[in-house]
Structures are given as C-alpha cells and as structure tokens.
Amino acid sequence: MVVALWQQLSDGYMRLLMEPWIYFLLLAVVWLQYRRAERMERASFGVKVNFASLEWAISAVYGLLAGIVASSLFALLHIQVSAGEILAVWVLIFVLMWVDVRLTCTAYVGPLLILGSFILQWFVMRAGSQSIPWIRSLLNTPEHFSSLLLMTGILHVFEGVLVFLAGWRGASPLFVESRRGQIIGAFALQKFWPLPLVVGVGMGVAIPFPVLIGFSTFTIGYIPKTAARVAALPLILYGLLVTMGAFFARGHSVWILWVALFTLVAHEAIYQMIRRKEMHASALFVRPARGVRVLATLLRSPARMMGLQPGDTMIRVGGMSVNSAYDIHFALDQNPAYAKIEVVDLRGETRFLGTPVFENDPHQLGVIMVPDEHAREYAEIYPFSVGRWLFEWWRRKRSIGQKKSATMSERPNQGNSAPGS
C-alpha cells in the first residue's frame, strides 16, 4: 500500500513539474495580492509594514507542505475525479478570479460546478441529447461529484488549520471609517495559499490539481492573531461537516446535490457572519483617554525588537507623559540614544520596555499609532480581483501617458520660432 501510494504521488508530482503552468498562475495571483497590500501600506503610512516577497514565500511554503499532506490523504481515501472535471474546475477558477479572488475557494468552485452539471443534466433530459459522449459522462459522475465535495471538506479543515497557524501573519494596518463616521484603526487579514495538489483519476494514475485556498476579512475589535484564531474554528467545523456529508452521500445523486448546496451556502454564511461580527464589534484601535495606542510596528524596528504589540498604550516615554505623536517625538529627542517606555497592555497590566536607538532606525521607533481627531484620510475596502487590478494598472499607465503628453505640448519650441516674434 505504501509503495502504491508513493508511486501515485511521485507520478502526479512528476507531471506537475512537467506542466506547472496552472500552479505558477496561482503563485502569480498570490503575489499580486501581497503586492497590492504592500502598496496600500505605503500609500497610507509612507512605509512598508510587511514585505510582499516575504509573505509570498511563507504562503508558498505553507501551501506546498499542505498540498503534499492533502494529496497523500486523498490517495489514502481513494478520492478520484475525472480529468474533465479538473479542467472544468480550473476554467471556473480562472473566470472567478477576474470577479473576486475570494470566490476561487473550492467551497464555491466545486459546488458551482456540481450545481451547473445538475442543471445541464436537467436540460439534457428534457431535450433528449444524452447520446453526446461528454454529456453522457456528466450524467454518470455522482461518485466523482462526491469526491469533489470530499476534497472541499478536507481542504477546508486544512484551511482552518493554516488560518489558526498563520492567518494573522502579514496583517495590514489601515484607517477606516466606523459606522459613526469616526476614523479608527483596523487590520486587513488576507492570506492565500496555493496548494500543488495531485489527485487520482483511476488505475493508479494521478494528475496535477493545483488549487488556491484563502482567508479574507478585516478586524476592528481584535488584534490580528485573535481575529484569525476566532475565524479558524468555524472553518475547521465546517470542513468536518462537509467531509462527513460527502462521505455518506457517495453514490446518491440527490444527497450530493443537497451537500453541494450546504457547502456553498454555509461557507458564505460563515464569511458573512464573521464580517458582520467585526462590523458590530467595539472598536479597539481608537485613541485612548490617556497615552498613545499602538496600531502596528514595523519589521526590524526598535518598537518590534522591544516587544510593543498592537493594542498596547504608551503612557510615558523617557519618564515624560505622552498623549500625541509630537509628545513622543519630543521625549525621544531628550534622550536620542536610548528609549525607555511605560506601556499598558489590553489586560490593563503595566510593563516597562527599553531599547537603544541607532541613527538608521525608523522615525518614532517604527510605531504606527491609532488615528487621532486630526485624521481625515481612510481606506475603502473592496474585493480584490485580477480584472480590477488590470483595469487600475491600465488607468495609471494612461494617466502617466496623458501627463507626459501635456508636458511635451506645453514646452516652447524655441528652435522654430520666427524672427521678431
């Protein structure tokens, strides 16, 4: 059994190495997402809070390990799909990523494919076109459909685990407008993991089946790690329920249809529940009555080195009370070589931190503070899609070209000026 498993996996990954284009496409989509977050941070705060290349590499490694483990589990459970279904899933993923990358999740792609197939079957039966070979194959795939749902359930268990372990990494701080019109601090949590899966298609043969699993939300009432772990548990429970439902629905077309509907509706319900919970949560990253609250810290900054955390409130710097960014700047100027800070954390406990400050260290110790009453600019959160990214890229290029053309037209042509003019 171990030898057969090894042969199937090695055959599948050898095929993936020979034809890695779909996997490379998913890696590129993940890279675009992290680059977008990086640009948003630079536009909002003038600095990069996270590095797109680092977050992309970490996601790729996590996805690679999860893909190998999931592929092994698929082989042990004898989960098989047809090559035609894999092609249909890839096509649907490609279409949905132009609308919203969040929709490329298997919880949407698999059930939408199954529901579309059942609708097609209904039309075919009414039209009497069952003699067409590829339509006839769709009418005889309940076992493969249950395998798609099994894969969806198992992958969501993996997704929940990945969200729990690393969903908080690379969270992007931002300023948003609350329901009361106040500018407050928040975090955008968007993680995507490209999984280089291989899956059996029968006779001990496996072919590549790369998929993208991801997690997207924002939080105003929790620190990023807590927000990710709160969202992870419903995902794991959802994955287990879908897995059990698909297992017992094997071979029963009607039950497969109901499980597909549950898979689609329940996933969207979980997403909307988490989002609505965040929208109605008490804002955490607002200006406190005393001190300056930390929203985020920069990588390799003195603030990160000394252990400042999101939600901490700086009460004193260098023995001086601080209530604004100007106060912090003034206190640091009094002793530019060493910073001693009194901090109150979210539990109300006081601790003292200190670190030497060097000439090349970031301004203000590398701390991004929650917005004060003078803040006017804030971010609008909208879904990320490849289509929108390309449209914005084309619009920026066109705007730059128009500015260059206007500059050239306004430049005087002194070489051809007429005498006496």
TrEMBL record:
Q: InterPro entries in the record, alphabetically?
A: PDZ_sf
Keywords, ordered alphabetically: Membrane, Transmembrane, Transmembrane helix
List the transmembrane segments: 12-34, 54-76, 83-101, 107-124, 145-168, 197-223, 230-249, 255-274
Task: Identify the stretch(es) annotated as Disordered.
Answer: 402-421
Asked whether the keyword Glycoprotein is assigned, the reply is no
Highest taxon of source: Bacteria
Under which name does UniProt file this protein?
PDZ domain-containing protein
